[in-house]
């Protein structure tokens, strides 16, 4: 499949999530509904939102645990959510790329011919 468009959705580090685009991207018109697009972004944002469990609070307060912890990103959870979203978007010939390839600054939505 050949990539027709790449839409870059920036990540807002102040709110710790992927920000919405003010306008619905023109390349998506006729391919996907606005609500489906927003739901996909919300699912991805749910991974980036901080989860305040007791273990996470202890890890945040302990520099030793932080230094020995291997997985410091959201890769495992995010991978699972992206696979689920991309399976749904496959009908529309679209997919989200993993944000680790852009150093978590944005997520790229690929639209195929």
Automatic annotation (TrEMBL):
<dbReference type="Pfam" id="PF10256">
    <property type="entry name" value="Erf4"/>
</dbReference>
<feature type="domain" description="Golgin subfamily A member 7/ERF4">
    <location>
        <begin position="7"/>
        <end position="67"/>
    </location>
</feature>
<keyword id="KW-0472">Membrane</keyword>
<dbReference type="GO" id="GO:0016020">
    <property type="term" value="C:membrane"/>
</dbReference>
<dbReference type="InterPro" id="IPR019383">
    <property type="entry name" value="Golgin_A_7/ERF4"/>
</dbReference>
<protein>
    <recommendedName>
        <fullName>Golgin subfamily A member 7/ERF4 domain-containing protein</fullName>
    </recommendedName>
</protein>
């Amino acid at each position: 499949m050949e990539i027709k468009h790449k839409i870059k959705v920036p990540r807002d580090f102040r709110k710790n999530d992927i920000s919405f685009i003010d306008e619905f991207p023109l390349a998506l018109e006729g391919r996907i509904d606005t609500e489906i697009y927003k739901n996909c972004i919300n699912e991805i944002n749910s991974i980036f939102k901080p989860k305040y469990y007791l273990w996470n609070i202890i890890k945040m307060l302990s520099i030793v645990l932080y230094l020995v912890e291997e997985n410091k990103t959201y890769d495992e959870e995010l991978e699972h959510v992206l696979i689920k979203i991309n399976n749904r978007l496959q009908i529309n010939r679209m997919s989200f790329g993993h944000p680790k390839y852009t150093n978590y600054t944005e997520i790229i939505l690929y639209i195929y011919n």
